[in-house]
Write a structure and sequence with these properties.
The complex is a heterodimer. Chain A has nine helices and no strands. In chain A, 73% of the residues lie in helices and 0% in strands. The longest helix of chain A has 37 residues. By secondary structure, chain B is mostly helical. Chain B is 74% helix and 0% strand. Chain B contains 13 helices and no strands. In chain B, helix 11 runs antiparallel to helix 13. Chain B is globular and about 85 Å long. The termini of chain B are close together. Classes of the chains: A mainly alpha, B mainly alpha. Chains A and B meet through helix 3, helix 4, helix 7, helix 8 and helix 9 of A and helix 1, helix 7, helix 11, helix 12 and helix 13 of B.
């Protein structure tokens, strides 16, 4: 099951590459085929402007992967750095940093990202910025907890007594031990960033027309649900397969790397 | 964490939330007044709005007057309709609370019994199916589940209204959309914590003294197993409140979430600010209540310990 999920994920990645090779045109408008059912020419049917849904799905998932990767890399770097500092130094540094994360955690779920995206104005860069501003907190929390228990490990104390500098302790002796936990966390966060991106786009705060995003496509699909139910089913089905595939791949990695996810 | 420390933490978090929402309007790239009014606005209008929002004062002073206005229940007024924001909140907030409470009830009524069932059938196929559904489908976002439910129950079967708030049944689809994720999490939690408790000594004792299985489960095991549920419900209220933004938009439910999205579309930033603040504050207060409730419910967790 989990291996199967990983292959679905690989399938999606391959589909993105294939979409590039075929040079599909996701923005080509054809007013003769508005909201048509799936056919030989348009495998997934066409949308309200007669654009090919398959081409737009592929272009949308590419944007989604891009946003998810960029946001995950940035939030992980910032969060891990903050968490390492808080966990290693403890005391006042820890108290201040954790108070800041508490404030960010006080905003439920995606609300803060919506607020940031709203005031910054809709664009790809601002979308990434909004997701980064809110996404680092979970990494900081995770890293802090792990660092606190790792900093008193024998090998860290030994390195410290040999005179290793703090950056060396943090990055050479503590961080490598966090790698597997972080990899698993990153996999899950890929899925949650994709959902967040689609949510923002769904609300009109993310990717802007004419560029394709699964969130905006789903919003259009809901609008035309009565006349073209296939549209919402296809976009919904693709979204589900991708999210499930990523989450199951996360489970697979977690089992492989033997990481116990703390709830 | 002691009661005092918890309280200090609560106050600083509230302060941080206020500061962050206050700063929101200052994150607008360029001139917020121009963004809100558009380029065609006259300079007199701009100056009036700027003075009204206090944007020409020093930042600290702006923050202080923001706080003092809030303390008097004054959220400012909408730029477009000129109505006081507090009036908007008064009509919209109850709708959201109603929706959130109903989905909470759905979550509890569906989630807890399913969790008990899965625990009792642990490692049988029934457990397997319940777990798969709860673990996997709970990862699906509201903007996926909402349209799917709408398609099935409103468009195809025609049992329920597609959207709006006109009939009594309008609340069902949005509430189920919101409650589904919660019920899935509750199923999982109830199952796990019940299974844990079932291995405890006092359960063996209860069984040994000849109590019926029903009494053992319902009176002895469930009581202890439900404790973590309080925490989960509290924590999930946050995603429930955030989920209302999307769900209300999908189903045209006139709550605070939809107000937020509308205000963003109209660039009515004072309204946006107020909505974000109200939702965040509700969440913080719910979390504090959860914490207190948990300590009251579990004699082992004590304030000041």
């Amino acid at each position: 099951m989990k291996k199967f999920a990983t292959s679905i994920l690989i399938f999606w990645l391959a589909a993105v590459l294939l979409g590039h090779l075929l040079q599909l045109n996701p923005n080509a408008i054809d007013l003769n085929v508005i909201l048509n059912n799936p056919s030989a020419n348009h495998w997934f049917g066409s949308d309200d402007l007669g654009r090919d849904v398959l081409a737009r799905i592929l272009s949308g998932v590419e944007v989604s992967f891009f946003v998810a990767l960029v946001v995950t890399v940035i939030t992980m770097s910032v969060g891990v750095f903050v968490g390492l500092l808080a966990g290693f130094y403890g005391g006042k540094v820890d108290a201040v940093l954790m108070q800041i994360t508490d404030v960010f955690l006080a905003f439920p779920g995606i609300l803060l990202a919506i607020a940031f995206a709203a005031v910054l104005g809709p664009s790809l860069t601002n979308l990434i910025l909004a997701l980064c501003l809110t996404g680092w907190v979970s990494y900081a929390r995770l890293t802090r907890g792990q660092t606190m228990s790792l900093r008193n490990r024998q090998h860290v104390l030994a390195a410290q007594s040999l005179g290793a500098s703090v950056p060396r302790l943090l990055f050479r002796h503590i961080l490598p031990l966090l790698a597997s936990v972080l990899v698993v966390e990153a996999t899950y966060s890929l899925a949650s960033v994709m959902i967040a991106e689609a949510s923002l786009s769904f609300l009109g705060l993310g990717i802007q027309a004419p560029n394709a995003s699964w969130g905006t496509m789903l919003r259009d699909a809901v609008r035309y649900m009565l006349v073209a139910p296939h549209y919402v089913l296809i976009v919904g089905g693709c979204l589900m397969s991708l999210i499930l595939a990523i989450n199951l791949s996360g489970d697979y990695l977690r089992d492989k790397l033997d990481v116990r996810k703390e709830d | 964490m002691s009661l005092l420390r918890r309280f200090v933490n609560f106050i600083t978090v509230i302060f941080g939330v206020l500061l962050l929402t206050f700063l929101l309007i200052h994150l607008v790239p360029g001139d917020p007044v121009e963004v809100m009014l558009g380029e065609s606005a006259s300079s007199a209008d701009r100056a009036a709005l700027r003075a009204d929002l206090g944007l020409n004062q020093p930042l600290i002073q702006q923050f202080c007057s923001y706080l003092s206005k809030l303390a008097h229940g004054d959220f400012g007024q909408s730029i477009h309709t000129k109505t006081p924001i507090i009036d908007l909140l008064k009509t919209r907030y109850p709708a959201t609370v109603k929706l959130a409470l109903l989905s909470l009830i759905i979550g509890l009524v569906v989630g807890v019994p399913l969790g008990i069932y899965a625990a009792l059938k642990a490692n049988h196929w029934q457990d397997f199916i319940v777990t798969i559904v709860s673990v996997r489908l709970s990862a699906m976002p509201a903007f996926w589940l909402g349209p799917m439910l709408m398609l099935i129950f409103a468009v195809w079967l025609g049992w329920l209204p597609v959207s709006g708030m006109d009939s009594n049944t309008s609340i069902i689809l949005p509430a189920v959309t919101l409650g589904f994720g919660l019920s899935a999490i509750l199923t999982r939690m109830t199952r796990t914590s019940l299974l844990e408790v079932l291995n405890d000594d006092y359960i063996r004792t209860a069984r040994a003294k000849g109590l019926s299985e029903k009494t053992v489960i319902l009176r002895h095991a469930l009581r202890a197993a439900l404790l973590p549920i309080i925490t989960i419900v509290g924590l999930q209220m946050g995603s429930l409140l955030a989920g209302t933004v999307i769900t209300e938009t999908i189903f045209s439910w006139d709550g605070i979430g939809r107000l937020l999205v509308e205000s963003i579309e109209k660039r009515d930033y004072p309204v946006t600010q107020a909505c974000v603040l109200v939702v965040a504050l509700s969440y913080v207060v719910v979390n504090l209540c959860t914490d207190i409730l948990y300590r009251l419910a579990d004699p082992r967790v004590k304030f000041g310990g």
